Amino acid sequence: MSVDAERFATLVQDAAGIDDAHARRAIAATLATLAERLDPGEARDLADEVPPELAAWLATNTPAARFGVDEFIRRVAEREGVDAASAERDARAVFTGYAVSPGELADVAAELPNEFAALLPRGPWVDRPTVDEFAARIARRTGLDGERAMRAAGAVVETLAERISGGEVEDLEARLPLELHPALERGRAASGDHARSMPLHRFVSRMAEREGVPPAKALVHARAVLATLREAVGDEEFLDVMSELPADYKRTLMPAGARSG
User: Fold this and answer.
1) What is the rounded average pLDDT of the residues 152-163?
2) Disulfide: which of 7, 91, 104, 157 matches 3 by Cβ 3.0-4.6 Å?
């Protein structure tokens, strides 16, 4: 065990920028939800490594419930009595508290889908940026303020989610800020979970309608959003997404230098 309960609470408090009472609620909510997501044997192994005062939160005798990261965050939020964005921040802080060994953390990660990478402190996956980081990158590329940058991002990813397969939408959700998930899900629902054929001019006009700007400006913003998306998801995943789009999409939308592969 790396730290005692008091030190663990302090680490969570510092990582999340919350007070001591909030940190303790976050720890309890995150561990209790994690226990629901793990097989009982792994939950017991984890309980053996966390500070003894916290082990009770990991007690479970039921099979792992196979829910995804969004449901994980929803359950943490409900237990904590906070919104989803705060719950995601708090859960990430709990996972980065280093109360267990790297080997045990790797064992836990092995039972979770890759979409949980955003909450974990280490692993082979690309780290998911915060919504503020994502907006700031778009803003630097476009000159938009943060709110307008996220409006552009929402318009782009919602339209993109209509045009690609449901599986690729899920992969994007695993890497992008939680605040973009509703737009991705709206696009996915509009296409019935299947890639929708759409000529490029219609794709651009739909982005423009959603953002509330002229098509020429929407196209400029789309290039900036996609450049930022590539940074967030990594080259391999980005090229997987773009491989589902026709050649004219790639020539027009893909950031400079991103058309190979």
Assistant:
1) 96
2) 7
Identify whether residues 248 and 138 lie together within a single domain. Answer: yes
Say yes or no: 112 and 210 in one domain: no
Residue 136 lies in a domain: yes
Cα separation, 34 vs 108, in Å, equals: 9
Is residue 261, in this structure, part of any structural domain at all? Answer: no
Q: Which domain holds residue 55?
A: 5-119
Boundary residue ending a domain (77, 97, 119): 119
Give me the long-range contacts of 12-17 (CB less than 8 A, separation at least 24). Answer: 12/90, 12/93, 12/94, 12/97, 15/92, 15/93, 15/96, 15/97, 16/89, 16/90, 16/92, 16/93
pTM: 0.55
